[in-house]
Specification:
There is one protein chain. The protein has helices spanning 6-16, 39-49, 59-62, 64-74, 89-106, 119-124, 139-146, 160-172, 177-206; strands at 28-33, 52-55, 79-84, 111-116. The protein has nine helices and four strands.
Amino acid sequence: SVWDDPVDYIETVKGAYRRNNWQDQPNYVEVWSEKGTILGAIRPLADEFGVTLRTCHGYGSTGMESQIGSFFNSVKKPITVFYLGDHDPSGHNIEADMYEKVQRASGTKFEMRRLAIHAADIRAFNLPPQKIKSTDSRAEGFQRRFGQGAATVELDALPANELRRRISEAVTGLLDVDRWQRALNVQEVEFASIAEFGEHMRTILAHQ
């Protein structure tokens, strides 16, 4: 990477710097989604909280569970993963499979909570129900759990506002609010320091 001058570089730093405010928290949190299609709707919220988003689809084929497992092994605090997935046989299986693989790879116990979609959401939000695919090898287990005539529904059907509300409520519930506010205050001071240094460099260059 190249810049026109030090001020140009500092402007890049101002846009790229983000303090890890979770370092002061008693918990570590991530959000995993079965599908990448909903990430655009929840990414601004994840950015606001500084929470890592991951897409679970295809993890088993890429070996990403080992990468996540290694990282989780380095986290020395309780870990909670909030999961977003389809309410269908495959969606629930992916959730269980990823949990098992990452826990085995990390050697670390962590909590995984499904935020969406739940069976009750179909009626509560008048979601378009679908029938279980007869070719789905996981259908039998799903029917034992949710009923013989259980309907399925895809994650994308749940309103984005409801997804954001659930994520915000879940993440906030694990925050030490006082520590979080102190971290935000520190972040503002650091931003101001970077900006001040940028103005100082701009003045120096103007007099050269």
